[in-house]
Amino acid sequence: MPRRPVLDMTPEGEFRDPPRPSGLNAVLARTSRLAILVGLAAGGLLMVALAIFFIGLLLPVVIGAAAVASVSLWWRRRRMRAMGIEPGPFFVVMRR
């Protein structure tokens, strides 16, 4: 005759002793922690890779805008000198 489990419960319906964890539960707990850590690390590397990718896409735009701005400033200073005005340093004034 097989051994039947004994359920030792209180009148409120709670178990008196917590169940004993099996060896498989401990192994699964360790591997799940490791899997979460690996997943978080991979997610972080993915975010870094995406940031580098988008910076790489925007870099030519920034270089082009800086080139256009420098040519524009050079042209304005050249025109001022041609009109006989010695250009001083440029100041940026923001109006609201």
Describe this structure as you would to a colleague:
By secondary structure, the chain is an all-alpha fold. The protein is 62% helix and 0% strand. The protein has 1 helix and no strands. The longest helix has 60 residues, at 23-82. The protein is rod-shaped and about 115 Å long. 0% of the residues are buried.
Can you tag this structure with a few keywords?
single chain, 96 residues, mainly alpha
Provide a count of the helices.
1
How does the overall form come out from the CA principal axes? Answer: rod-shaped
Detail the poorly predicted runs: none
* Number of E-state strands: 0
Q: What can be said about the biggest beta sheet? A: none
Tell me the series of helices and strands, N- to C-terminal: H
How far from one another are the termini?
92 Å
User: In percent, how helical is the residue content?
Assistant: 55-70%
Radius of gyration: 36 Å
Strand content: under 5%
Structural class computed from helices and strand pairing: mainly alpha
Q: Mean pLDDT, nearest integer?
A: 88
List the helices and strands and how they pair.
Elements: H1 23-82
Question: What would you say about this model in short?
Answer:
The protein is mainly α and 96 residues long.
